[in-house]
Write a structure and sequence with these properties.
Organism: Citrobacter meridianamericanus
CATH topology of the largest domain: Immunoglobulin-like
Subcellular location: Periplasm
Largest sheet: 7 strands, mixed
Helix content: under 10%
CATH class of the largest domain: Mainly Beta
Pfam family, one: PapD_C
Number of helices: 0
Family: Belongs to the periplasmic pilus chaperone family.
Number of domains: 2
Keywords: Chaperone, Fimbrium biogenesis, Immunoglobulin domain, Periplasm, Signal
Strand content: over 45%
CATH superfamily of the largest domain: Immunoglobulins
């Protein structure tokens, strides 16, 4: 998910720079028994970029200086030269903020990519628009003692009520459901949905399904792939 943060206009629109920084994942899991988590950023562009990194609790409008989390990010701001990489380290601060121990907690990792302005391309009659782009990634804190995350999707229950379906997640893990597919191959939900640990969510289905009907739950794994689990509607 990428959000345009601001437009730095120099004179008038002529050319535009998009973001060049990529990271080595689409979601990140910090297990409690790990000392820290390392994320690799790479600048695939032809000019340097400045990256600002922070975590938020789900409000994308909050400024970094207004947010307090139980993690230290090092470095919070980094210059990444063209074609080079930068390791980002995130470490939980002991005894700071109360974090649930019986289930996962989630934050959003923000990376704001501010590309350099090439002054050599700016003349008296030229113009440039420089774009700073923010990318947001899911960042999970996984306490120890929650059990095996593998096959957690198989525990999700699907309840039917006419054109509504309720997805029940009894596990201590966040589970993202990409779709629920009928035996005839029709997807039932309009878009993927993330179900918080030990909670449920109700969605409008594209078509009515009956109790006892067999469906395939498609969910996203820790690594961003899709896993399928055949189940029966209750």
């Amino acid at each position: 998910m990428k959000i345009f943060i601001y437009l730095l206009a120099l004179f008038s629109l002529s050319t535009a720079h998009a973001n060049n920084i990529i990271v080595n994942g689409t979601r990140f899991i910090y297990a409690e028994d790990s000392a820290e988590i390392t994320i690799q950023m790479t600048n695939t562009g032809k000019s340097p970029s400045l990256a600002q990194i922070w975590l938020d609790e789900g409000d994308p409008e909050k400024l970094p200086e207004e947010i307090t989390t139980p993690f230290i990010i090092s470095p919070p701001i980094a210059r990444i030269d063209a074609g080079n990489g930068q390791s980002l380290r995130i470490k939980k601060v002991a005894d700071k903020h109360i974090v649930a121990t019986d289930r996962e907690s989630m934050w959003w990792l923000n990376i704001l990519d501010i590309p350099a302005v090439d002054k050599n391309n700016i003349t008296e009659n030229s113009a440039m628009l420089n774009l700073a782009i923010r990318s947001r990634f899911k960042f999970f804190w996984r306490p120890s003692g929650l059990g095996d995350r593998q096959n957690a999707e198989s525990k999700v229950q699907i309840l039917a009520n006419q054109r509504d379906i309720t997805l029940v997640n009894p596990t201590p893990f966040f589970i993202t459901v990409a779709d629920v597919v009928t035996s005839s191959g029709h997807g039932l939900i309009n878009e993927g949905v993330m179900i918080a640990p030990k909670s449920k969510t109700t969605l409008s289905a594209k078509q009515q399904i009956s109790r006892g009907e067999s469906v395939v739950l498609q969910a996203i794994t820790d690594y961003g792939g899709i896993v399928e689990h055949k189940t029966t509607v209750n």
